[in-house]
Amino acid sequence: MKQLIECVPNFSEGCDMTIIKQITDEIEKVEGAKLLDVDPGKATNRTVVTFVGTPDAVVEAAFEAIKKASQVIDMSKHHGEHPRFGATDVCPFVPVANISMEETAGYAHKLAERVGNELEIPVFCYENAATTPERRNLANCRAGEYEGLPDKLKDPKWKPDFGPAKFNPRTGATAIGARDFLVAYNVNLNTTSTRRANSVAFDIRERGRPERKGNPITGKKKLDENGKEIWIPGSLKACKAIGWFIEEYGIAQISINLTNISITPVHVAFEETCNKAQERGLRVTGSELVGLIPKKAMIDAGKYFLRKQNRSVGVSEEEIIKIAVKSLGLDDLKPFNPHEKIIEYLLEDPAQEKLIGMTCKGFANETASESPAPGGGSVSAYIGALGVSLATMVANLSSHKADWDDRWEEFSEWAEKGQQIKDELLYLVDEDTRAFNRIMDAFGIPKGTDEERSERTAAIQEATKYAIEVPFLTMKRAYESMEIIKAMAESGNPNSVSDAGVGALCARSAVIGAYLNMQINASGLKDQAYLTSLMKEAKEIVEKTKAKEEKILEIVKCKIA
User: Fold this and answer.
1) What are the tens digits of pLDDT across the range 394-437?
2) How far apart (Å, rounded) are the C-alpha atoms in residues 146 and 143?
């Protein structure tokens, strides 16, 4: 699964968009990075840029953007209302998909080292990339701002993590860090009262509200022995919130910033807001997502609401997200388009799903054409996807079967596993064709010079190896699906046992078909030690698949009889 990181650099220029465009052009030049948003502010004289991509691409794009900013922004002439200390003031990395915070921080350090060494800009690492506890807080790193930098850089305690401890009046310094994804999220209320919306906001936000004597609203604030206000914390961690009235919609909202959705996910914030609003005689009518959100957050929300209904979570991704949108009321004020709001969907390349984006008829016609691809590898992966889809269908039907209400979780777990394998096999449908195309591209490399011949041979071998590994992965996933198929034949809805049997036949065909694909591609590979080991494992999978298919069909025939 592809790793994705979001980067949100803040550049100290918000008035001259020709300067900002020079910076964002550098980002757009990098393959694997996609520019999502450019948000300039004149009063702050600052522009927030958002882009996302694979980790290495994000590091490269961020470096080129910081490099260009150091050339086109002169901090000695900068004035703005927002705290700042550099041309690229801050550059946080945010994990989006299939990557840990620790790994993300490692990429932040990689960027910081390049910026410090190659551009000679002082770099302070903050939040999850911080090298000391004091530097976790961005405010500490930026204290004194640009004007205080000359003295700060002389202080040994504030020696930069990377780059020289030397003041550069043009570039200033840069803070590079790794932080959690921040979701800006508004909850709609059936009131026009800002004061009542604020009351709910104070109930949920982590900071809470000041404790008062007597009347909780107008009473005098309580102080501790040091004369400081005593605060009653709210119910949600990593949550900032305030109430306001939105004239455009004619309602009050609770404006929420979820600073760590792994601590407080969107659906938890929504449910808690509903509960606190109800306690105060209010009702939540829906919610609004400001900006973008990772797909996982929407999937988690959809599965949460499905489980509340005692329904299987092993349904398609589209259905899960639809449930999330309806349950959170994200379409209350205006239509909600997941393909405009979910980061991963914005990055989708239609060319990557050429085959599985076709109709059944279109796929059959494409396969039957004079083109050599799609071939047996893609068809094997698709047969495997159909086989596990049948088993997943049986699991979902079983979870809804009358008088089986106490077993819905059992079948939901099977269906969820089935959906995962189905999605992987569908990916392999197109990946097998891409592997074939890699071989063709390698054969197209010129072979005039010794260097070109060497490069061509290496490319052919690498592409051939990959063209063997892709059908091998198809074999493994199709074989794994037989565990689900067998379970559904044994204990699933008896009215659908024949579907489980057809699923077994599909899985067997997928395994054997992919094995044939491996064998024909293996003829061009020179690494015999690697090939022998891989083919031995593949042959074992074929034999185990045949044995399991035989057992499943025995169960099916017995139940049908």
Assistant:
1) 999 999 898 898 999 999 999 999 999 999 999 999 999 999 99
2) 9
Answer CATH for 4-178 from 3.90.960.10, 2.60.40.10, 3.30.990.10, 3.30.70.100: 3.30.990.10
Closest by alpha carbon to 261, among 284, 307, 292, 305? 292
Domain borders along the chain are: 4-178, 183-346, 350-560
Is it true that 183-346 and 350-560 share their CATH fold? no
Q: Which helix (H) or strand (E) holds 467?
A: helix 450-491
Of 203, 300, 432, 499, the catalytic one is 432
Q: Which of 82, 332, 400, 423 is catalytic?
A: 82
CB atoms within 10 A of CB 132: 10
**Local structure of 92: helix, strand or coil:** strand
**pLDDT tens digits for 435-476?**
999 989 998 888 888 888 899 999 999 999 999 999 999 999
- pLDDT score of 524: 84
Reported pTM: 0.81
Per-residue pLDDT averaged across 99-123, rounded?
A: 97
Annotation marks residue 499 as catalytic: no
Residue with tokens 């009347």: 215
Per-residue pLDDT tens over the stretch 365-402: 999 999 888 999 999 999 999 999 999 999 999 998 98
Supply the Cα-derived Rg of the chain in whole angstroms: 29
Asked if 189 contacts 252 with a C-beta cutoff of 8 angstroms, the reply is: yes
- Per-residue HEC secondary structure of 206-271 comes to CCCEECECCCCCCCCECECCCCCECEECCCCCCEEEEEEEECCCCEEEEEEEECCCCCCCHHHHHH
In this structure, whether the domain defined by 183-346 belongs to CATH 3.30.70.670 is answered with yes
350-560 folds as Four Helix Bundle (Hemerythrin (Met), subunit A) (1.20.120)
Are 198 and 207 in contact, with CB atoms under 8 Å apart?
no
Give the type of residue at 152. K
* DSSP secondary structure string for all residues of 414-460: HHHHHHHHHHHHHHHHHHHHHHHHHHHHHHTS--SSHHHHHHHHHHH
SS3 374: coil
Annotated catalytic residue 432: yes
Distances (CA, A) of 207 to 138, 233, 255, 258: 19, 5, 14, 13
Report in angstroms the alpha-carbon separations of 492 from 19, 169, 311, 415, 498: 63, 71, 16, 11, 11
Kindly state the helix (H) or strand (E) to which residue 182 belongs, with its residue range: none
What is the dihedral sign for C-alpha 480, 483, 489, 492?
negative
